[in-house]
What does this fold into?
Amino acid sequence: MTTCFEIARKIRNREVSAVEVVKATLERIRLVDPKIGAYLQVTEKDALEKAQEIDSRLAKGESVGALAGVPIAIKDNIVTKGVRTTAASRILEGFIPPYDATAVKRLRDADAVIVGKTNNDEFAMGSSTENSGYKVTRNPWDLKRVPGGSSGGSAAAVAADTCAAALGSDTGGSIRQPAALCGVVGLKPTYGLVSRYGLITFASSLDQIGPITKDVRDAATIMNIISGRCENDSTSLEAAAQDFTAHLEEKINGIRLGLPKEYFALSADSEVTKAVQDAARLYENLGAKIREVSLPHTDIGIATYYIIANAEASSNLARYTGIHYSSRQTPETGSGSQIFAQDVIDSTRTLFGREVKRRIMLGTFVLSSGYYDAYYIKALKVQTLICRDFEEVFKEVDALITPTSPTPAFGIGENIEDPLAMYLCDVMTVGANLAGIPAISIPCGFSSRGLPIGMQIIGNRLSEGRILQVARAFERETEFHKKKPRIDTDECG
Amino acid sequence: MNGGACSAGRSRWVEFDSVVSVEIHVQLATESKLFCRCASVYGAQPNTSVCPVCLGLPGSLPVVNREAFELGICAALALSCEVSSICTFDRKNYFYPDLPKSYQITQHYSALGRNGRIEIEDNGGARQIQIDRVHIEEDAGKIVYDETTGESLIDFNRCGVPLLEIVTKPWVTTPEEVYKYLVAIKQVLQYTGVSDCDMEKGNLRCDVNISVMEQGAQEFGTRTEVKNLNSFRAVQKALEYEKKRQIELIRQGKKVVMETLLYDDVSGKTALQRSKEQAQDYRYFPEPDLHPFFISGEWLESVRSKMVELPGARRERFIREYFLPRYDAGVLTGDREIADFFEKCVTLHNSPKVISNWIMGEVMKTLNEKKVSLSDLNLSPAQLVELINLLESGEITNLVAKDVLAAVIETGKSPRDIIAQKGLRQESAEDALRAVVDKVIASNPVPAVEYKKGKKTAAQFLIGQVMKETKGRANPQIVARLVLEALDKAAPENPQK
It folds into this structure.
């Protein structure tokens, strides 16, 4: 299994060239992605050019960045300069951003090689990537099942080894849940730690960009590159720069880990519960202190999340009108008759998919006069209570261990007609978004069907270093993250 | 006025008051826009001062421009407002092509300043107009309609420029007083450098609300909103029209409907704005991309200490220090540039009244004719003072001085150079003048005769002719003396002539 760390090391030592690595990646994509459908776009030419440039600098003995030559995929709701970015929506079909997201720019500055844009649920709204306006992405572990969402493409690409790592975004679990369903690592940082500049906004107060990787060390390495104050994002934190890899290999003796009972009650699948409980026992053997804790407002987390997120989304997506960029759908009229701007706006916005429209309507409703106090303001108050739950709990423990997703990957088409069932995929992940605290999902087992199960570790604000350390401790003792899916690349099937 | 009172209407003998509230949007004179680093420009090529943020491109985020805030604070202080220590922003959501994000970032639930006031002159005294709130928001783009193609084009240069919204409390007033209020606001904002307040350039926009009520009534009537007001005078005229219209409606027993009207400057009337069926629900909610902005006591004090002398205070000082009449002081301090110019002149030449006369006279006349501001005029305090010195020393006459001033402005040369070049020095040499006097008397025999007969005013004609002959350069006092001498000396009337 080639990690970012390994690839970067080999390229720096000139054991392998950046061009060789990129070519191998592109070849793997050609071979495997037709089955998976993780990529919306492969930026072959740009990737090879960047790789060549890196090799030539190495040949001259010049220094290169920490991720030199490492092939990384970017979720398509993160803007990439000069490269079409659609947020998997038809309404942005022709959109070519004139600028890079800060996170992308920092990866480029570290000499990472961007190999393509990955599929996601349209505007990051969904838990299965089935809401993409372009294509279905399949879970590499079982092609009839979803990879999770909304960063399903990124998670599937990492799991299928069609890139070394990927960027995703997480608003209610969109990095962690697909990571769990695809058997890879996914980290949602503390709100404000990674710049949102260039992330096509879904919910301003909840969104975060984060890494999806093959192991914990890679997640920490990428965090070192992409996190930190950004002057283009007013919600970006002033926190001092950290080295997230610094304490990875330290022992976790005496660490206090909590198991929130409400989360385990929500777990619909006994295999999932068992896998996480086994993990808790392993931690105990490593010297951690395990106890049951309570997060009393867990049950209203989903309702709170969907009110706040949809309210903000209804406003954030109002800019997609076809007036000044992206696809414009002009209404059909007789020749010579006037077309009014409002008609263009109305007609263009029919390009949104059903789930997006649903959420815009819900969000508009909760912000509308007469309902604003009863829904939006109320939800903000409940959000405060949820934050307090976590504050209280972190006085007793250092981190929380929970399942990431109530079930392993479900079948394509299984939940798509039932929006509420789909929303319930997020029950274990939305809490961390609402509280703005960091959470990571790592592989912790497999179901009897051979589907990955993910364990979530949640920490207090700005405790990424600690949760990465806790995650790494588990990884050191297990081999789950090393297992790879067998992707049938024969013509039939 | 007809006598008949309508049965359901109000008698024509009932008097009405008008109640007005004024909403002004001024563009702040910042270098850059409110939430991005684009330059705040006027008159540039369309869409050349734009970026992902002010275009509302996917993934873009706002970042507050501190300079804009400082100007806003300055305005709030100048208007005697209570300045909030915490500033938050809100989104106002609506669809319109000139609004790229389909929401405007504004302040709805909070305001930069509240409960301010401004003084206006009221029949020799002063009156305080109450200001309800002052807040900051971003401007939208500009839509231009192309007649030839029938297309509407949008220029986003203006999008994101910082605006200050100043809203008065509704008060019982007259259209004329509202005009004075606008003039007073403009003066304060110009003085503090907050804005140029030029309605022509679009950096000041004004909407008004007006209702009428019977004098002595306790409740305000239903108000209408009037928009599309492009000058202060238009505001006054629109209010006059609307007041009359509403009173007439009520007198006829009809009700005033709460609606938005557009003013048409050509006809002088207000008319219903095309279809606005329901009241807009803007779904205001706190802007999640911007955290609350703190205004510390220290920052407030630093802004206060840097603030310039406000118009009212300056006017009083001019009266005190320069012994100017109230009227002069008022005119000079009406415009900060003119007041600054005046004071510079006085430091060069300590004759405040003379300088005041020249500025209020010839200089301001020129500004009005050319429709420019003082900074655009080619005239420096040094030049004006030089001119005044030349006049006072007798080197040129008053008439010539006015021409010289015009020439200075035209060419930028100094008065001395112009006088030398055109040979405009006052002709005081008596011999030269006597020759002209004699010539003029000789060519105009009739006035000389009339003078002899006792018509003294005939001399004036001759004096005028001499001045004309010398192209105004002759010293008038000397000419007058010489003409009278010549006439008195003339041969007694000869019946044969």
Observations:
- Residues 1-7 of chain B have pLDDT under 50 and may be disordered.
